[in-house]
Every structure is written in structure tokens, then in C-alpha cells.
Amino acid sequence: MTLTFAPDQPDALPLYAVAVEDLDDVLASLGEQAGAWVKAVGFKAEAGQACLLPGDGGPVGALAGLGSAATRKRTRFALASARAQLPDRVFRLETELTGTALEEQCLGWLLAGYQFTRYRGTETPMARLIAPEGVDPHRLETIAAGEALTRDLINTPANDMGPDELLAATQALADQFGAGISVVSGEDLLTQNLPMIHAVGRASPRTPRLIDMRWGDAGPLLTLVGKGVCFDTGGLNIKPGASMGLMKKDMGGAATVLGLAQMIMALDLPIRLRVLIPAVENAISGSAFRPQDILTSRKGLTVEINNTDAEGRLVLADALALADEEKPDMLVSFATLTGAARVAMGPDIAPFFATETSDAGAVIIAARKVADPVWELPYWEPYEKMIEPGIADLDNAPSGGMAGCITAALFLRRFVTQTPNYMHFDIYGWNPAAAPARPKGGVGQGARALLAALPELLAL
Where is the Cytosol aminopeptidase domain (predicted)? Predict the structure, then answer.
């Protein structure tokens, strides 16, 4: 993967990033012959278009379309589309873009260099870009590398990405940055009072575990919790085949927090970081937990199981209860949790919930700046009764099908009672179709928004 900027070099070709409304001025500056060529090949600076400028013996530059003012609202990372259309050369960006708009396009260019080649051989050489004035190349390269880690983990099929392999990936990250790591696994989950993680994972021959990584020794404490269900059959409430087809991505929350953790550590932010990942496989066997079972959680709350396919909130609940006992300055969970979130928001937008209005506002503002779309949904108090079955404290799968994303978030919030600042992201973690800078497959959501908001959230 080519996720870094190229070193400066004198023979770099100019790459003109052009908006539709600026095309005539740019063509005038290039001269009559170049202008005639660009018009002849039909380049109109529409988003995703690219055009080489010919010279004696090879190209002398290129144009990349950014679209019109109207289409720019509908297209993220327009410059990224040009990268695959350009030859394997080094380019120098020529553009009127500045500030966050320039950063977005440069990050998109880097992300367009992502290639998942573990199962199909060599990478395709790609055009490279010199970091333009006005961007922080180290920060953008760090973000791109963290996103690539998230994508790699999600894209890896479950036969090669079970709880063991997820632990290995976390251990490799810890080793890279000098973080500490501890693990509670198997029957020790019961003796260490993590019973719902054990219940969900016990049917699989792949041992369930809670992974706990810590980094940093000064500053406010940020705890990230990521759902690590490495494959989800649905358990005894088995999923139909069409619904099971993408369940390798059900550890997308864990993949996202690991990618975000890499960004935080590589940028050496002045915080203490804790990452908790309940890593399990929701399988089917004689030892599987059952519908109508009542589980007792780490928090002491009892949970009636009305659907074994609503397992993610169970493993998260124990991990959140553990995190809450330490009273971190900020607690954030990421999970591919509900289909209801996808129905409401589609695959692009990650809904999130925040216990503090100011935290939500900071994330919303940051998300817009870094082109990482999120949308706040409410912890709607009147729906609390929907998760109270009567026979136990909580119901893991309320009947009726209404407000499934909200009731799941309310369920998780019951396990965070000592930490005022808690946020939950219900992500999809997958691009169903290729888009600029985002090939079909695994993708991080919400991580860049949270990273950009941390200075305000933690008063850094």
C-alpha cells in the first residue's frame, strides 16, 4: 500500500485539482494547445474525472476534477478518484484549496492507496503525491495508516481472524508502541466476573477472551471499548444465509478502536489510553446460550435472552462495566451493533449517542471538518421500559422491532453509571460499493471524528 506522501523531487509533474467553475481560468493559464486538448478529450472538471496533459515523449502534467459547488456537497474525497487513473509517477498538487478542504483531498489521496492483497498477490503501482504546503503530512499519514489497519482487520475472513488472531493483532500494536496488554480468557472469564462474555463465546472451540491494552502514563484517561465478535452465526437464533454473509465484519468495532488507538499512539497524544476488546465467536453447539436464559452480568444486572443474535450488547456490557469501575475521563464504545442503525442512516453515516450534549457537539463539528459523517441519536428515556422485561432487569432483544438502535444504546448505558462522559457509536464498518478513497469492503467510521474532537473532549 502507498499510504505516504512522496519525497519532494524536481521532476514531479504538476497535478491541477480543478473545480468546474475554475476550469476556464486554469485552461487559459496552460496555454491554447493544452486547453484545446483538454476540451477535445471531454474533461469538464467533474468529480472523479482525470486528464493527462501530453508532451514530447510523455505526460507533462495532469488535471483532476473536483466537481461543481453542488456536486462537491455530494462527493467526499473527489481527488482520490483521479489517483487510479494516473500513471505511476510523482505529482505536485496545484490548487486553490486551503485548510480543511485541502486536508480532506490529501487524506483521500492517501486512503486511495489502500489495497487488500493478502489473498490475491502483488499490489498495483500507483501515482504518488508530494505533500503540499498547508497540510501536516505526518498527521495525515498516521490517520491513513490507522484506517488501513482497521480495513485489514475487517477484510480478513473469520477463518484467519478469530479471537486468537485479534489478540495477536492487538499484541503487535502494543509491541509497536510500548503499550501493556493483559488477557482474561476461557473459564477465567467466570472467576474474573465477566460472565456474559463467557456465555456468548463458550459454544465456540475458539476460546473467548477480554483483551485489555494500556498506553501512556500521564494525562486524562480515554477508554475505548470495541465489539470483537469475530463471526456471528446468530447462535441458536441462527441467521439466514443472506444475513450471515458479512459477519466477518462483526468485529468492526474492535477493528475501529485498534485503528484509532494506533493513530493516538503514533501521534503521541498527551493522554492515557485503555482499549478493551471482548473477543468471541458466537457459534452453535450444545453449550450455546439459549433463548429465555437469564444471565447475570458483571454489573449484577440480570438479562433475559430473547434473541441469541443480540449478543454484541452482552459482551460489550461486561466490558463497559469493567471500564466504568475505573471512572475514565471519557468512555467510548464502537460496535457493529444493530440493523436498525443501517435502516435509519444507511452505510455511510455512523449514528452515535452521548450522555453529555457538549461532547456530542464537539464530535459533530469535528466530523464535518474531517469528512467522517456521524449523526447524533437520542437516549430517549421513554423507551427505557422497552428493555425491561419484568422477569429480569433487562431484555437483550425487545419485541416489536421499534427503535432498535436506541434501545440497544439504552441497554449499554445501563452498565455505565460512574462515568459521566460516555459515547456509543453504532457503526456499519463496510462499504457495499466502491467510493472515492473507500474501496468495497471494510472501513472505519467515527474514528477520525473522535480523534479530531479529542482536544476539546479531553481539554488537551
Answer: 307-314
Instruction: Say how far apart CA 253 and CA 423 lie, in whole Å.
Output: 13
Could you tell me which residues are beta bridge partners of residue 296? 302
Any idea what the CATH number is for the domain that residue 345 is in?
3.40.630.10
Give 59-63's long-range contacts (Cβ < 8 A, gap of 24+). Answer: 59/13, 59/87, 59/89, 60/13, 60/14, 61/13, 61/14, 61/15, 61/16, 62/13, 62/14, 62/15, 62/16, 62/86, 62/91, 63/15, 63/16, 63/18, 63/26, 63/38
Which are the contacts of 42, defined by CB distance < 8 A and separation ≥ 6? Answer: none
Helical (H) or strand (E) element with 183: strand 180-185
Q: Which residues are catalytically annotated?
A: 239, 313
Containing structural domain, residue 41: 13-135
- Check whether residue 183 and residue 290 sit in a common domain: yes
| Cα angle 387-391-392, degrees, rounded to a multiple of 5 | 60
* Assigned domain for 324 exists: yes
30 located within any domain: yes
For 415-440, give the DSSP string: T--S-S-EEEEE---EESS-BTTB-S
Taking only the tens place, the pLDDT of each residue in 45-83 is 999 999 999 998 889 999 999 999 989 889 999 999 999
**For 282-294, how does the pLDDT look when each residue is reduced to its tens digit (9 = 90+)?**
999 999 999 999 9
What is the crossing angle of helices 137-155 and 447-457, to 10°?
A: 130
Domain count, the chain: 2
Rounded CA separation 61/446 (Å): 36
Say if residue 131 is in the same domain as residue 175. no
Can you tell me the distance from the alpha carbon of 414 to that of 355, in angstroms, rounded to the nearest whole number? 12
Length of the chain: 460
Q: Which runs of consecutive H residues, i.e. helices, occur in 337-396?
A: 339-345, 357-369
pTM value? Answer: 0.97
* Cβ atoms of 111 and 80 closer than 8 Å: yes
Q: Among residues 83, 103, 135, which one ends one of the domains?
A: 135
Which of residues 135, 153, 188 is at a domain's end?
135
The three-state secondary structure class of 229 is strand
Rg value, the chain, Cα: 24
* 96 and 183 belong to one structural domain: no
Whether 151 and 111 share a structural domain: no
pLDDT tens profile 234-288 = 999 999 999 999 999 999 999 999 999 999 999 999 999 999 999 999 999 999 9
Can you point out the beta strands (E) in 30-160?
Answer: 50-55, 58-67, 90-94, 128-130
Let me know if residue 2 belongs to a domain.
no
- Spatial distance between the Cα atoms of 33 and 301, rounded to a whole number of angstroms: 75
Collapse the DSSP code of 129 into the 3-class scheme (helix H, G, I; strand E, B; otherwise coil) and give the result: strand
Taking CA 139 as the corner, what is the angle to CA 215 and CA 347, rounded to the nearest 5 degrees?
A: 85
